[in-house]
Amino acid sequence: MLPLIIISVLLAFTSATPCDTQGSNGELLLSLSKSLLRSLEGQGTLPNPSVHLALRLANSHNLAKESEHLNQLKNHFHNDIQNSLSNSQAVTGRLALYAMALKSSCYDLNTITFTVSGARETLLTHLKRQMEQEKEHIAFSHRPLTNYYQYSLGTLALCVNGIRVNNHVSNKLIKATQHQHFTHGDAESIDTFAMAGMALQCVKEAGSYVHNAAELNTALAQIKQKLLAARRPDGHIGNEYSTGNAVQALLAMGTPVAECAASMEAMRTDARGSKYENPMASSQILPALHQTSYLTLKTKECLDEDDTLVLEPIDPVVVLPSGTTVTVIVEVVMSSGATAQYSVDVPKDSSLLEALELLATGNVGFTFEKETSLWGPFLSAVNGELARQSDRRYWQLSSDGTALSQGISDYKIGKPQKITIKNSTY
Ligand code: B12
């Protein structure tokens, strides 16, 4: 009898260990996949290659909806990139995510082409060219045209698609790692270290980097060390939104799953709360929770796939306004240093975007503009002043002196506070 009890207790314990993919963890993975599938149904949103990738790297699938989404990517997302290419805009990251999304569905990339100045060339040829331009820009001005996160995505996308990455391209990423050039505003970018780690690990495994193998190994060790050192006591690596990329990178670099247990648990807790409502956020943590990474795309075969993921209809949740309002002070700091301050009362738990909209309709002289991105609306102009990426400037958001870890549409105003919107360099 006693051994039986011990076995049952052990079984109960093991099924609750942080890394199991069964039981409550399995349910969590399913519910994350379902909410990503639901996000595809949102009206007017551009299909998102990162969401496609996450769905394809998961264990449970809804093959019909995934294939429908692939078609939308091939139309709408494709056209969006085509327009940017025709206007000579750098689209490294988007091209890379698109290439990885197609690969995740085992789609023949040689059939995907873009036409610029009358010449029709494949997606991968365009990506290679963008990477050359990025590399030239680094040589000239010590930073990529876009950023090192996208430079890493580009390297990774070429590599997982079996394209030999130019040694000079990899070398620039190795050098940037050595010199710790991965920043996000005025802080370190753990997301970028993670993406660079996956890219360089892929290059290493492809055996294509013949420049200096020792240097490549040192860069990988530095990245691993950086990610491990960025672990917080609560398990997050960097912040809530970089942990998924960081765990993916650690796993890709051969770290045993058990070493990531605390970070996995932190992500699961976040996922059960409402931290990952933004589909882009869930898309970056889902592969990590499946104990996999973008690197596995290299060997992805789309055979005998599960097709059991079904979306049950959900009853719309009606949130009644609580009637409570909170006062938000909005301070705007222009590039000249001039400041302006406004006050607005908003219903509790309004988004910052709703607060700004209310302020803008109040005839107090406050105006703003936003641009769409995969993460949602990006604040681009305030009081008529643009913070342009071409000038390496952006409107930095903070609350009571602490930088926000979410953007204007996700950040919720739960209590009275002072929001500062500052034209900053990065
Ligand atoms: C590079 C980068 C930046 C650069 C972008 C400019 C550039 N050319 O380099 C700068 C420094 C300007 C920046 C600013 C901010 N960022 Co940022 N950024 C990134 C990073 C590292 C890569 C983005 C990227 O190139 N993606 C690849 C391309 C293909 O996707 P894309 O959608 O086309 O990319 C554009 C958007 O992502 C946009 N963007 C960048 N950051 C953010 C943040 C938000 C909320 C939105 C809506 C858009 C946006 O700029 C990209 C380039 O054009 C990501 C990391 C990650 N995991 O994604 C963080 C990340 C997206 N940023 C983040 C945050 C919080 C911010 C800020 C809100 C910080 C702040 N307190 O002010 C601001 C945005 C404020 C605003 N004006 O709306 C968070 C978002 C988390 C969340 N839940 O929303 C991330 C995930 C980092 C993190 N782990 O915390 N960012």
TrEMBL record:
InterPro entries: Cbl-bd_prot, Cobalamin_Transport, Transcobalamin-like_C
Cystine pairs: C19-C260, C159-C202
Lineage start: Eukaryota, Metazoa, Chordata, Craniata, Vertebrata
GO process annotations (BP): cobalamin transport; cobalt ion transport
Subcellular location: Secreted
Signal peptide: 1-16
Protein name: Transcobalamin-2
Main location (coarse class): secreted
GO molecular function, one term: cobalamin binding
Binding site for cyanocob(III)alamin: T146, N147, Y148, Y149, Q150, D191, N239, Q284, W395, Q396, L397, L404, Y426
Alphabetical keyword list: Cobalt, Cobalt transport, Disulfide bond, Ion transport, Secreted, Signal, Transport
Domain of life: Eukaryota
Similarity remark: Belongs to the eukaryotic cobalamin transport proteins family.
Transcobalamin-like C-terminal domain: residues covered: 350-424
GO cellular-component term (any): extracellular space
